[in-house]
Amino acid sequence: MTDLLSLMSSYRKTASWAVWGAPHPSARFTRDSDLSLPVRDPELSLVLRSDVVLLGLNPGNAAHDRARDESADYINFHTGPKHNDHLIAEAFRETQYWGSYMTDLYAQIESRSALVKDVPTDIDALLTEIAALNGGEPVHIIAFGARTYQALAKHSKRLASAGLVRDITRIPHYSGSNNGQHKGSPAVYRRLVHAALGWLDEATDSPGTVVESPAGNDPPPSHDASDYLDGFVQLAGELYEEAGRCAEAELWRAAVLAIGGAVEAAIVGTATVLEPQLRKQGIWPTVQDPLRWQLGRATQLARDAGWLSASLPGSSDDLFEPLHGEVGDAVRFLVAVRNMVVHPGAYIRANVRPDFTDINHMRPTYDILHGIAGEVFGQLAAVLGYNPVDHPG
């Protein structure tokens, strides 16, 4: 897989990626959220995508400071609440366009958009950047605001002749000058963006199904499902049983890892069989190869697909709140506890964390995880007609 961060490193002073704080955040973004690009997180490369470009008009005056600061890399669209970057982060949190490339149309540094000049050579520079980003294949441009959209329209013939842009979609601008629309609210802006992208179902006002690709243009499956399903089913059963043995031996970290692995294997196995349907729904993850998915990615797909029912917004920082919802909510608790085993940083950052040395603490904690896994298997069985618990290998 191409290392997109390295590939586009020469643009690090002017461009960035639609990831804020962490590769897989679930909590809603606010003015107080971490809005930096997590360049040191090894999972960042797994969420980046090269076929969608979020495009601003031009850099604001803050770019002067970036040019003077040698350490200021990838901070365009990531400078903080003063510039409403938290609105963009919230708009794309847990969507298919999380991880998209972000850059500007024009190079002129000017905070007053009315003073930005149309420079044709900047269009050529943008096309060169896009060609490098996506290997010469066309991209979908999502333009922030009317001025960016109209500026692209002026050069429609040039864009068409280059063959590097397959679609252009306009979304509302996030800047303070557009407060009349988004009211400075991340939730309102998220709704406006989702409506512009066609992600809201008019009857429910909730994110709906993305429009299908034209017939005959669906990407081919990334694998042969028959090669994988039996292996995933067997592995899920084996890990589930192994988790029980580890718990009996009071090896709690190993038990948590195994139960998380069992859930991951069950979901990914289900996805390999149903990939064509998931692609038509527009929810197949941007990390195309299911063998590269991790637990957080897999459980999010299961919720998006409706396999794991959920009723909570998934935005609370309370570790235990998901346990008051349905299985699709409760699995967030499982993911969080498992991440504290796998990632030392996640354990240190957590306000509430497991005491893996205390059996009186870990026995009920493991019992909860075991119950969540059983519910996950049951709901997947209803989808696909198999239950990993019944297939211990």
SSE arrangement:
Blueprint: H1 4-7, E1 16-17, H2 44-47, E2 52-56, H3 63-68, H4 85-92, E3 101-104, H5 120-134, E4 139-144, H6 145-154, H7 156-162, E5 165-171, H8 179-182, H9 186-196, E6 200-201, E7 206-207, H10 225-248, H11 252-273, H12 275-281, H13 295-304, H14 327-342, H15 344-349, H16 359-384
Parallel strand pairs: 2-3, 2-4, 4-5
Antiparallel strand pairs: 1-3, 6-7
Helix pairs in contact: 4-9, 10-11, 11-13, 11-14, 11-16, 13-14, 14-16
Please characterize this protein's 3D structure.
By secondary structure, the protein is of the alpha/beta class. It folds into two domains: 4-207, Uracil-DNA Glycosylase, subunit E (3-Layer(aba) Sandwich); 226-390. Helices cover 46% and strands 7% of the residues. It has helices at residues 4-7, 44-47, 63-68, 85-92, 120-134, 145-154, 156-162, 179-182, 186-196, 225-248, 252-273, 275-281, 295-304, 327-342, 344-349, 359-384, and strands at 16-17, 52-56, 101-104, 139-144, 165-171, 200-201, 206-207. The strands form two sheets. The protein has a five-stranded mixed beta sheet. Strands 6-7 form a two-stranded antiparallel sheet. The longest helix is centred in the last third of the chain and has 26 residues, at 359-384. Residues 201-226 have low confidence and may be disordered.
Element order: H for helix, E for strand: HEHEHHEHEHHEHHEEHHHHHHH
Distance between the termini: 32 Å
β content, as a range? 5-15%
Largest sheet: 5 strands, mixed
CATH topology of the largest domain, which one? Uracil-DNA Glycosylase, subunit E
Strand element count = 7
Q: What's the number of helices? A: 16
User: Over the alpha carbons, how many angstroms does the gyration radius reach?
Assistant: 22 Å
Assigned CATH architecture of the largest domain:
3-Layer(aba) Sandwich
Mean pLDDT: 85
